[in-house]
Design goal:
The longest helix is centred in the N-terminal third of the chain and has 14 residues, at 2-15. The chain is of the alpha/beta class and 188 residues long. The model has no long low-confidence stretch (mean pLDDT 95). The chain is built from 8 helices and 5 strands, in the order αβαβαβααααββα. Strands 2-1-3-4-5 form a 5-stranded mixed sheet, sandwiched between helices. It folds into 2 domains: 30-97 and 140-188, Beta-carbonic Anhydrase, Chain A; 104-137, no CATH class.
């Protein structure tokens, strides 16, 4: 079982004091917040490609690196990092070949039903104003998705106008970064 393997490994990790090489402050050394996709290919690649070491940045992961709601948990984390953890810049990093590209909400809903979620529950959520198909929708263009997330952050009423908000796209095979939005040029 995976949990048992993790706990067994953790005991040795702590006993051998392997944690010591990762100790750092809770404040980001580079004063940066990164919003990136939860894609497994980016776990180590993204920080290395961005020259980020442990302690350099606050890294928030979400499906597609999407900041879809101005008052959701990702936005709250960004605001907290700016005001309480001394972050001065924000960087949204999407990636090519993202699983959120061209997501089929109907197929996802079908999988939910196959896994035991009742159609009645989905209908109730729709009736309550939570349109599952809209909520599960991904994006068609990673470039446009990054631009939209940058706009949600940059235009938020609680984000200081002088906070640069950058948008990048990374190649998950090579680590190459392309600038979509240069926050220094676009900061107000």
């Amino acid at each position: 079982m995976l949990l048992n393997e993790m706990i067994e490994y953790n005991k040795k990790f702590v006993e051998n004091k392997e944690y010591e090489k990762y100790q750092t402050s809770k404040l980001p050394n580079k004063k940066l917040v990164v919003v990136s996709c939860m894609d497994t290919r980016l776990t180590e690649l993204l920080p290395k490609a961005m020259n980020l070491r442990n302690g350099d940045a606050k890294i928030l992961k979400t499906a597609g690196a999407i900041v879809s709601h101005p008052f959701g948990s990702i936005m709250r984390s960004i605001i907290f990092a700016i005001y309480e953890l001394n972050a001065h810049e924000v960087c949204v990093v999407g990636h090519h070949d993202c699983g959120m590209a061209h997501v089929n909400p109907t197929a996802t809903t079908k999988k939910m039903i196959e896994r035991g979620i009742s159609e009645e529950t989905i209908e109730t959520l729709d009736y309550a104003g939570i349109k599952i198909k809209d909520w599960l929708h991904g994006f068609d263009s990673v470039l446009e998705s990054v631009r939209q997330s940058v706009d949600v952050i940059r235009n938020h009423p609680l984000i200081p106008k002088d906070t640069p908000v950058h948008g990048l796209v990374i190649n998950p095979d090579s680590g190459e970064l392309d600038i979509v939005v240069n926050g220094y040029i676009n900061s107000k």
